[in-house]
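Entry 12.
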Amino acid sequence: MTLHSTTFASIRRYLGAAPLIAALFLSACAKPDEASRDIFDPFEAENRRMHDFNRGFDRSLLRPVAHAYAAAVPDDIETVIIRFAENLSLPADVVNNVLQLNMRAAIQDTARFVVNTTVGLGGFFDPASEMGMAAASNTDFGQTLHVWGAKEGAFIELPLLGPSTTRDTYGLFFDLFTNPLSYVIDSPENLAGTAAGVASGLSRRDRFSETIDQILYESADSYALSRSIFLQNRRFKLGGTGSDTYTDPYDTMSSGASVTPLEDPYDE
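Predicted 3D structure (tokens):
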């Protein structure tokens, strides 16, 4: 395991936040009671301090760098880089789907990876989609732990990576070891994956800039809003791996209401 593969895994964890925030923002604002229901946040004081740090990092570095990158790089090149980064993440999805006994998704993602890596020249092009071979799902070891029956635990704001839970934080650690490419690509070749992950994150930060800025800098309580958005989306996604609804086992005051499915703008 190299530092570069570890960095790429952390970057991938962050990338999912931007499109999901954009997809859920209007729902969270329109239904504040529903969005904030069933929250277990015993570390709120510490989480708020970390949220302030993350927001400062975004304001001073991430947002301006993302704007500069998007202005300098043509849209077509940005799209190619995003495809390349997503293709490199597919082997980890395959491993997690196998661990979740979701063999159909594992086979589907394997076929997509093989086609895009060979015919698509390493993932720079996407012939698999043109052939009707869409990605099965974007999964992770936190979702695998859910399938295995692990409890959600407390809400946690991670440095740089943002909202998470106890279970997803453990999952993030194991995600560092689940991508087989980490064991077959050595330095300096693995720098390409890390660079693609960084560039893809910058592209998405800029693409959803207006919505993210509204949450972080224009909402009355950006911490509470981002927490609600994350938990609402995460619980709905995990509900798809088990029952139709998901209730945090730590929450003794749960109403049992289901979470309304919301569209991910990157979901094809």
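Annotation: Strands lie at 155-158, 162-165. The first helix runs from residue 3 to 15.
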